[in-house]
Amino acid sequence: MNGVSHMISSHDNADRPDLRYMATYDDETLDRIPPTLLPGDKKHVLVYQDESIFHSNEYRRRSWLAQDQQAIRKKGNGRAVHVSDFISEMIRWIKLSEDQISEQLA
Q1: Does residue 54 contact residue 80 with C-beta atoms inside 8 Å?
Q2: Are strands 47-55 and 24-25 parallel, antiparallel or unpaired?
């Protein structure tokens, strides 16, 4: 996969027997094709993690120094906020309910 599309087409499914548990997509119309499961088989649904780190870059870019001095800078980029989401084809973004959030904060 090249990072642009994570869809699995019906053409790709022919050579991968492990993909028979997952939905595929028609190459022309992009219509969803549900998997053909045998008795006892369970459908597989991919869940992707999307994660980003945002830096505040809170250090100063300018400073007063004598001519023979060199600035000593911190190694990091300041404080960071880490944002992580889980995304599923079936239910979109996976998130906690209000009750689950309250329970976690208690």
Answers
A1: yes
A2: unpaired
The ranges assigned to domains in the chain are 10-105
Predicted TM-score (pTM) of the model is: 0.46
**Tens digit of pLDDT at every position of the chain (106 positions):** 334 444 554 455 556 666 778 888 888 898 888 888 889 888 888 888 888 888 776 666 677 788 888 877 777 667 788 888 888 877 788 888 899 989 989 8
Q: List for the chain the helix, strand, coil content (%; round to 5).
A: 15, 25, 60
- Sheet with 92-94, strands from edge to edge, namely 47-55, 80-88, 92-94
